[in-house]
Every structure is written in C-alpha cells, then in structure tokens.
C-alpha cells in the first residue's frame, strides 16, 4: 500500500491557510494522514518539530519524505505528482491565469485579511469595513471578472474547480462571515464555495472542532450563516440507533444523533457532532438516511 502524505493543519474554524492545504487533498481525492494542532498554544510548534524546517500550517510531508510548508508550493508539488487530478487547468491559457490568481491571493489582500480574519462559526450583519478592505474587494472583483472573461468560465474561475478556487475559498468565507459588499456575479461565486462538498465538510467540522478562539471574537451584530441551511439535527443520549456501526469508521456505536425523529449512531462524539452540524455534507451518512 502506498504511504499517504502527512498533512498538518490548525483549527478548522479559523486557519485559512489550513483550509487551502486541506482542500488541495480532499477536493482532488489525494490520500493523506492528518495531524491537527490548536492555534495560539504550544501544540503547533511542538508538532512541527517533526516537520523541519516548517513553522506554519499547512505543512505536508510527501511519501518520499520531502517537507513542504507553503500552500502555493504544496499546490505546485501535488499538481506535478498527480497531473491526472486536475489541480491546475489542463490548457495553457486558463492554467496561466489560475496561477496568476493564486499567486496574488497568496501574497496580497492584507487589509482584508487583517480586518476580517476567517471565522466559520459566525456571520455578521456588518463589520464597518475600512477603505483598505473595500479596495481589496474591488481588486478581487477585478481579477475574478478578468478570469471569467479570458477563460469563458461560468461557475469557477478558470473552468473546472482548480487550485485557483482553492486559494480563494477562505476569501469567500470572509465575505460570508462579515457580509462584505460585492456584486451579484462575485456573490454567486461566493455561494458556489459555500455549497462546495469539501468546504461544507470542513465548516461542519470547524463548528465542533474545539472551543472558540478569543482572538477571532468580534462584537458585531450577527445573522444566520448565508450558505446552505443544514437539516435540523441534534445530539441525544443513549446508544440505541437504526444503524449498528459508524457510517464513517465501521466501529461500534457510542454516540447518537436524532434527525426527523430517527436515531443514528457513531463511534465517537466528533463523528456525531460534525454530522449534526450539517448532515447533508456527509454522503456516507446520507446513504443511511
């Protein structure tokens, strides 16, 4: 059996770069072994001691032992090692445009990042964006419109979902979280991200992945998350359930949820809680339903 990649990530709700690294694996079907550490603690630097010289998440180790600690480098290396997965567009022109977009996102938009850090656990009605953030939003719409015009893409930026879209997934989440002002076409693109299967799973996990990080707390008025509305599910006590094994691991039932007055079981609290957060994000669970 081929040894999978090792992938280091931080808190799912808050680590925008970790989201990019994870999407490069999950959205393109590349096997990996995950290592998670909580931000603003000793966990991440301690974990990264085994991934020298990395100091940030995401970081990967390839099956042949090469450590790659930068998301853009991760994208390029995975694309080179797995050309069949379509990480970059196959044709030269859209591929070149996709690389331009990813590179600008990797290096820019500092006002937006600073004023609106990624937080997948909340959505606000307004965040009083300063001029620097508004300028960044204008630039986003400019380069997105350029990509659509040059490539003829109608859904994602350069044709099929690619690394360019991966790099803008956290920006889409920021627009959703902070209710940032963008035009109709840009908002359609944001909604496509919020509905993407891998993004929905990441957010569902982020909603139940540890306690809130105080660094990201803001006092703005809140609203409902503007993405797909989850089915109404809840965690319940006991172990009685329709299924006899966890839909994800196949292990015995220890934790249970209720959906539409039906009870479904899982092998641990996290498996249950991520499903409660967004049942339709999980095909293996929905197969039970």
TrEMBL record:
CDD domains: GST_C_3. SUPFAM superfamilies: GST C-terminal domain-like, Thioredoxin-like. Residues 5-86 form the GST N-terminal domain. PROSITE patterns: GST_NTER (PS50404). It comes from the Bacteria. This is Glutathione S-transferase.
């Amino acid at each position: 059996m081929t040894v999978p990649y090792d992938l280091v990530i931080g808190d799912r709700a808050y680590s925008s770069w970790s989201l990019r690294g994870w999407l490069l694996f999950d959205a393109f079907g590349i096997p990996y072994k995950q290592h998670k550490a909580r931000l603003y603690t000793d966990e991440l630097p301690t974990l990264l001691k085994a991934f020298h010289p990395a100091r940030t998440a995401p970081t990967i180790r390839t099956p042949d032992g090469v450590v790659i600690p930068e998301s853009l480098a991760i994208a390029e290396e995975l694309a080179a090692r797995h050309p069949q997965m379509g990480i970059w567009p196959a044709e030269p022109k859209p591929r070149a445009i996709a690389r331009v977009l990813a590179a600008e996102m990797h290096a820019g938009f500092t006002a937006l990042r600073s004023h609106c850090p990624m937080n997948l656990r909340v959505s606000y009605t307004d965040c009083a964006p300063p001029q620097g953030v508004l300028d960044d939003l204008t630039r986003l719409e400019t380069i997105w419109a350029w990509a659509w015009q040059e490539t003829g893409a109608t859904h994602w930026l350069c044709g099929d979902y690619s690394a360019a879209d991966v790099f803008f997934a956290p920006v889409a989440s920021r627009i959703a979280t902070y209710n940032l002002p963008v035009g109709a076409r840009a908002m359609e693109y944001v909604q496509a991200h919020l509905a993407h299967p891998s993004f929905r799973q990441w957010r569902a996990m982020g909603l139940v992945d540890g306690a809130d990080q105080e660094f990201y707390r803001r006092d703005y008025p809140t609203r409902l998350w503007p993405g797909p509305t989850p089915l109404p599910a809840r965690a319940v006590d006991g172990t009685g359930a329709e299924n006899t094994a966890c839909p994800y691991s196949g292990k015995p039932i220890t934790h249970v949820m209720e959906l539409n007055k039906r009870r479904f079981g899982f092998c641990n609290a996290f498996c249950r809680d991520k499903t409660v957060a967004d049942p339709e994000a999980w095909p293996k669970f929905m197969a039970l339903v």
